[in-house]
Amino acid sequence: MRQSVIRLGVLASLLVPSLLLASPSRADDLNYSPTVPTSCTVDAPRIKVGERPRIEIEVAANTTTLLTGSVDLAIATRAGAGRALAGVVWTRTVRYEGEPRTVLGPRLPRGSYLVTMAFTPDDSAFVGCRNAGVFNVGGGETGGEEDPVPGNLPDTGGPSVLFLLVGGALCASGAGVLGWGRRRGDARDGG
Amino acid sequence: MSDTDLDAPDPETPGGTATTERVRRRRSRPEQETEQKSTGRRVTFWTGCGLIAAGIAVLCWVAWQFWGTNWQSERRQNEVRDAIGEGWESGQDVVRTEFGNATAIVRIPRFGPDYAMPVLEGSSDEVLAAGIGHMEDTADAGMEGNYVLAAHRVTHGEPFAEFPSLEPGDEVIVQTRAATYTYVLDSGGEDLIIPFTETWVLDEQPVNPDAGEINPPEGVSSLITLLTCSEIFHTDNRSVVFGHLVETTPTSG
């Protein structure tokens, strides 16, 4: 009898905490729906041919909870100057641990590319997010957003009038040389 | 000289000393001299042709700047406008395009009823070749501070081609995804011309260091400043107009 009471006591002591712990979690499961939206940011600066793009990714949400999850990255070529995607050339899945991070992409030939990110949160209370950004692999130029002459107002005018004058002067002098050569030849031939 | 006129007695004429005849004789050209002349002519000819070709190339480049870049930039502007429309529909405030981040569309009724130019962040050559540039570190559209926009007056699509025609009272309508902001200009397109080194126009509350010159309106928290080159060809001077915010209409409303 005493042993039975002890067994019941032990069983009860094991069951009560497990019930206490299980109840809220079951309630959460029943009432769950992801409600906290997240915001994805992906950026890759313009690079030269032969360089690897540094893809910067960031996920933000209006919460103090650390955002963790996985990020699916993909790079696709863009056909010409349009926005049509010609094909995915690179994919990678990386972990996101609450801090913005940089992922090194592949070496790519010259062209325009679209990098996309899709965030899948670990915590099902958050809603996943997606975003995309365009970057170019080009020649010697870099960047497309820096001020070319920092500290001054930008150059918004046409070409220098000097080019017009130089072009006109070259044409005129060329015509002059041709005319002079012809006159000289005529003088020699005709006396 | 290859030809020579000689006054000489004809040896075959009897009494040639008495009746001197004027004869023209042509001396045969030495081969070497002929070759030198031919080479000289060729050099002159090709030098002239080279100069003309160089001149035409330079003039073609100038023509490309004035017409070719406009054709190219108009396509880019259309592309950015389309991308803005698609981006706003999908919920993006800032739309990433091949030429930069686009944030707004500007309408200036003075420039025509169809005038709708995209605004991109920054003032790099690439940005200014695809629309209007929103100067770095200046206020956003509709916000407190100075919203500064710069664009080409000639070449690269010429968004501000009609800048000198702006007059006080003209409206500048800036549409973003969130709202449409209406500014009214306080100065005209030819009222203020400054050197490109005078960056006070980018200040949050610009104050003209030249007393008595054009200033933005006082006591206004949300300003707009438009700037472009003051001449057709390259110049160090910039034309500037100031305006202030008069109306904000949320897009959803």
Distance between the termini of chain B: 93 Å
| Strand arrangement, major sheet of chain A | 2-8-7-4-5
Largest interface here, residues on each chain? Answer: A-B, 48 and 66 residues
Count structural domains of chain B.
Answer: 1
Low-confidence stretches of chain A: 17-30, 80-84, 139-150
SSE string of chain A, helix = H, strand = E? HEEEEEEEEH
**Overall form of chain A:** rod-shaped
Largest sheet entry of chain B: 8 strands, mixed, barrel
The computed structural class of chain B is: alpha+beta
Assembly form of the protein? heterodimer
Helix content of chain A: 25-40%
Mean pLDDT of chain B: 86
State the helical fraction of chain B. Answer: 10-25%
Write down the overall mean pLDDT of chain A. 74
Q: How is this structure best described in words?
A:
Chain A: This is LPXTG cell wall anchor domain-containing protein. Chain A: It comes from Nocardioides caeni. Chain A: Keywords: Membrane, Signal, Transmembrane, Transmembrane helix. Chain B: InterPro entries: Sortase (IPR005754), Sortase_Class_E (IPR053465), Sortase_dom-sf (IPR023365), Sortase_E (IPR042003). Chain B: GO terms for molecular function: hydrolase activity. The complex is a heterodimer of chains A (191) and B (253). Chain A is α+β, with helices and mostly antiparallel strands and 191 residues long. Chain A has a domain of 101 residues: Immunoglobulins (Immunoglobulin-like), CATH 2.60.40. Helix content of chain A is 31%, strand content 34%. Chain A has a five-stranded mixed sheet, with no helix packed on it. In chain A, strands 1-3-6 form a three-stranded antiparallel sheet, with no helix packed on it. In chain A, a hairpin with a 7-residue loop joins strand 7 and strand 8. Chain A starts with a helix and ends with a helix. About 16% of the residues of chain A have low confidence. In chain B, strand 3 and strand 4 form a beta hairpin. Chain B is elongated. Chain B contains two helices and twelve strands. Chain B has an eight-stranded mixed beta barrel with strand order 4-5-6-7-11-12-9-8. In chain B, strands 1-2 form a two-stranded antiparallel sheet. Helices cover 25% and strands 29% of the residues of chain B. The N terminus of chain B is likely disordered. Chain B is an alpha+beta fold. Chain B has one domain: Sortase (Sortase, Chain: A). The termini of chain B are far apart. The longest helix of chain B is centred in the N-terminal third of the chain and has 59 residues. At the A-B interface, strand 8 and helix 2 of A face helix 1, helix 2 and strand 11 of B.
